[in-house]
Amino acid sequence: MLPGASPIAERADVDVRAIPDALLASGEPVVLRGLVADWPMVRAARDSAEAAVAYLRTFERRDAPPVVATVGPPEIGGRFFYNDDLSGFNFRQENVPLGVVLNTLLKYATEERPPAIYVASTTIDTWLPGFRAHNDIPFGPREPLASVWIGNRTRIAAHQDVPDNLACVVAGRRRVTLFPPDQLPNLYVGPLDHTPAGQPISLVDFAAPDLQKYPRFAEACRHARTALLEPGDAVLIPSMWWHHMEGLDAFNVLVNYWWRQSPAWMDTPMNALMLAIMTVRDLPPAQRAIWDDIFRHYVFAPGDATADHIPDDARRVLAPMDEARARSLRARLLQRLNR
After folding, report:
1. Which of 25, 169, 213, 313 has the fewest CB atoms below 10 angstroms from its CB?
2. Would you state the torsion angle of the CA atoms of residues 208, 209, 210, 214, taken in this order, to the nearest 10 degrees?
3. What is the 3-state secondary structure (H, E, C) of 217-257?
4. DSSP secondary-structure letter at 300?
5. 158 neighbors 209 (Cβ within 8 angstroms)
6. CA torsion 76→81→87→93, rounded to 10°?
């Protein structure tokens, strides 16, 4: 546990069949103790890792494509990360059948220094059809993506995700550490376009923070929130909250649900950030200041002065965005980028 971290707020009164909409949309993290404790998967995992694997294999799709298994040597201590000079990574990825991963995790379960093994963000309906008929959460009008994460004692560096996330621990224990989005300057985030798993990560080793190398991390710790999650517990991680996930047992399974509070046709804002870095960041200071005002006028603080003087039918991208306008604008941008 990081020094200075405070507990994540908790509730133990939430019914998995009727999670309040206000809670899901609150923008604040919360641990929901025992939310999925009655799932058959959780009950099997409480018996043993072998029972949990046997239960998962009842849903295994025999003709499924292989999963992507991330594997690292014992020396990395479960921390999937970069190599020493950040030119590559300290792990490899293999395409293997899910059943092979499950058997391998059981094989190494009693070893003191096993290789680190992790299957991340694997779509449940593709690889474990039927699982959600017995282990699922109703979300009303929301249609979240449901994924399963399987591994041993691993550490996933602090990162952000655009969707909201309800992460349910169904086997093993996990420690989750969260930071508000505004802690970005204090987390020493690595490259944006060369990442271990698609999202930029904090370069700080949470197991042994080097405050001489990363002094501002001490301030981040004062804003950190953490919790130890048991099988059956869940944590709501709002959009863009930094989260570090650590599997504490030899066999861990997590089921998570991702959804966005925006239409499916909206692109990720990360694309806009990358384009802004390419086109705006290195302008002369005076020009960059002009574009700061332009972005504020059109994007971050639009008001009556933005487009009220233009007839409704002529506003085009200045009108409220919808799927058709987004598709047309995306085609135009691709044409310009590929010139």
Report:
1. 313
2. 160
3. HHHHHHHCEEEEECCCCEEEECCCCEEEEEECCCCEEEEEE
4. I
5. no
6. 80
Strand, coil or helix: what is 324?
A: helix
User: Rounded distance, CA 59 to CA 324, Å?
Assistant: 39
* Parallel/antiparallel/unpaired status of strands 234-237 and 225-229: unpaired
Q: How far apart are alpha carbons 174 and 154 in whole angstroms?
A: 10
- Report the candidate in 32, 90, 103, 96 with the shortest Cα–Cα distance to residue 68: 96
CATH topology for the 6-259 domain: Jelly Rolls (2.60.120)
Cβ burial, residue 90 (10 Å; 0-12/13-18/19+): middle
Residue 318's pLDDT is 94
**Is 79 in a helix, a strand, or coil?**
strand
> What is the C-alpha separation between 238 and 80, in angstroms, rounded?
23
Asked if residue 1 has pLDDT above 80, the reply is no
Domain positions in the chain: 6-259, 269-337
pLDDT(57) > 90: yes
pLDDT band at 50 (very low <50, low <70, confident <90, very high): very high
Instruction: Look at residue 72 in the predicted model and tell me its pLDDT.
Output: 98
Q: What's the pLDDT at 339? A: 81
158: CB partners within 8 A, 6+ apart: 177, 179, 187, 201, 202, 204, 206, 242, 243, 244
Q: What is the pTM of this model?
A: 0.95
Question: Are the CB atoms for 100 and 48 separated by under 8 Å?
Answer: no
Write the DSSP symbol of residue 68: E
Give the Å distances, CA to CA, from 89 to 149, 150, 188, 243, 275: 20, 20, 18, 20, 26
Name the strand (E) or helix (H) holding 120.
Answer: strand 116-123
DSSP annotation of 115 reads: P
Residue 270 has a pLDDT of 94
Strand partners, 82: 89
Residues 31/228, Cβ–Cβ less than 8 Å: no
In eight-state DSSP terms, residue 3 is: T
